[in-house]
Amino acid sequence: MSRFFSEKYRELEPYVPGEQPQKQQQIIKLNTNENPYPPHPEVTEAVAAESRLLHLYSDTDSRDLRNMLAGLLDVSADELIMTNGSDEILNFAFMAFCDRHTPAVFPDITYGFYPVFATIDQVPYREIPVRDDLSIEPEDFYQSGGTVFLANPNAPTSLALQRETIEEILKHNSGNVVVVDEAYVDFGAESALPLIRKYDNLLVTRTFSKSRSMAGARLGFGIGNPDLIGDLNAVRNSTNPYNVNRLTSAAGVACLQYDDYNMKNCGMIMETRASYGRKLRDMGFEMPESRTNFFFARHPSISGRDLYLALKERGILVRHFDQERIRDYNRITVGTPEQMEILIENIRQILDEKKEG
Ligand code: PMP
């Protein structure tokens, strides 16, 4: 740290993303919940064509993207805001809807960026413990007195709440915003989207990173009533009005034109999840019922950290969190069936070696 670093950031513990190896080819990368399938070829074409216009700034209002998404989601364009990944809209929500008197409220086991956003935005936060089985107790979020952040499905637990449960939480927080982070919703969970016109305190956030194979392009969005979206735009236009660049915007439009391709890939990932979930359980793994593109798994005969390290040595990356309540687990992205087969084989060998050793 230099002696010039602002006092207000000295205590900051930055979010630690999963490792991004440089030599992709030898590594099986199941550590950051990316989609194993590349984007549609037309997305690549659209990016190449748009690159001729890189001397011009992008559209600050992302109108093409918002109009296409509005049609797809059956909402109006003024109920939408586009951002640089959904991390950006989450940060905007912390900035726009939390302050000294309105803390952020979220589960103790959830997306690790929430406490980081709260810290950098200098707002207090309260963590509500999940149950021992890692599920959320909805009533603990009633009358929260703060802005609620719920990843649904939750990460890294992979568990989802039903829409009616989210609705109860909304009803019991009518004086505060409830942000539902739906980064993984396309893998079989129920969206809160149909509630946005009924509850003016609901903001839904989503991403193109997972179900739409565009993690590297950084594209996310928020859906809520136009007043909430207006507040978020005030923050966006005061930080980075060109937050969605031209290449990403062109990629996003093409991606939505071929959305059947994306949804078919999600279907394949869910099938892979079902078959390899069974195989992992047969091998003794315990894991919650995943509604995401990852497993959250622990094994009675090996610690989470030892399994993570043994797999890493064999060129397979999974994610281990050194956080007390979840230290026994690893978060494992659902890859292609071929990748999962290699994973299973390696785990089998690791467990056998451990038994013999
Ligand atoms: N929410 C959750 C729960 C996540 O796991 C992630 C991915 N790390 C994000 C939001 C942010 O994803 P992105 O910024 O790529 O949209």
Key terms:
Aspartate Aminotransferase, domain 1, alpha/beta, binds 4'-deoxy-4'-aminopyridoxal-5'-phosphate, 357 residues, two-stranded parallel sheet, 10 helices, Aspartate Aminotransferase, domain 2
Write the layout of secondary structure elements.
Layout: E1 28-29, H1 41-50, H2 63-73, E2 80-83, H3 85-97, E3 104-107, H4 113-120, E4 125-128, E5 147-151, H5 163-171, E6 178-181, E7 202-207, E8 220-224, H6 226-239, H7 246-257, H8 259-282, E9 294-297, H9 304-313, E10 316-317, E11 330-333, H10 337-356
Parallel strand pairs: 1-10, 3-4, 3-5, 5-6, 6-7
Antiparallel strand pairs: 2-8, 7-8, 9-11
Helix pairs in contact: 1-7, 2-7, 3-4, 3-6, 8-10
Residues 85-87, 111, 151, 155, 181, 183, 207, 209, 215, 220 line the site of 4'-deoxy-4'-aminopyridoxal-5'-phosphate.
Q: What percentage of the residues does DSSP assign to strands (E)? A: 5-15%
Number of domains: 2
Percent of residues in helices comes to 25-40%
Unreliable spans are none
Shape: globular
Number of helices: 10
**CATH homologous superfamily of the largest domain - what is it?**
Type I PLP-dependent aspartate aminotransferase-like (Major domain)
Based on DSSP secondary structure assignment, what is the total number of beta strands?
11
CATH-defined architecture of the largest domain: 3-Layer(aba) Sandwich
SSE-based structural type? alpha/beta
Termini separation: 44 Å
Task: Record the strand order, biggest sheet.
Answer: 2-8-7-6-5-3-4
The main sheet comes to: 7 strands, mixed
Quick check: average pLDDT?
A: 97
* Top-tier CATH class of the largest domain: Alpha Beta
CATH fold topology of the largest domain: Aspartate Aminotransferase, domain 2
Order of helices and strands: EHHEHEHEEHEEEHHHEHEEH
